[in-house]
Specification:
The longest helix is centred in the C-terminal third of the chain and has 28 residues. By secondary structure, this protein is mostly helical. It has four helices and no strands. 78% of the residues lie in helices and 0% in strands. It has one domain.
Length: 120
């Protein structure tokens, strides 16, 4: 169960900032509570999709950073396209790409953090 909760929150942390930044087209001053609500909703739904997938395929793909990044990007793009209207053409696709990129970036950072913590 702990692995499912971790999976959900890591995907939430990948998708929410990607969605938030693309909704406001990088303008941090334009971020409102409505933007946060939509981005957190998109991140939560994408996280839930990945948790549901984890019940189907168990844990084999959970530890492959490229597979999880691709699935995160796909889920983020689909959920973003369905959950709210786009501010510009291709927003959902770009959100998926950005979420996949953040997923890879964070997985590398988490691995380095775990390695440095375990080596001490």
């Amino acid at each position: 169960m702990r692995e499912k909760i971790t999976l959900f929150f890591r995907r939430l942390l990948d998708v929410t900032p990607a969605c938030l930044m693309l909704m406001t087209q990088g303008n941090l001053a334009a971020i409102t509570l409505a933007h946060w609500e939509k981005a957190l909703g998109t991140g939560s739904m994408a996280g839930a999709v990945l948790v549901l997938l984890s019940f189907y395929q168990q844990t084999q793909w959970l530890h492959n950073q490229y597979v999880i990044a691709a699935l995160t990007g796909l889920a983020a793009g689909l959920v973003d396209g369905i959950s709210h209207p786009a501010n510009f053409k291709g927003e959902a696709i770009m959100t998926g790409i950005a979420a996949a990129g953040l997923c890879l970036l964070f997985s590398v950072a988490f691995k380095r953090l775990e390695t440095s913590t375990n080596s001490k």
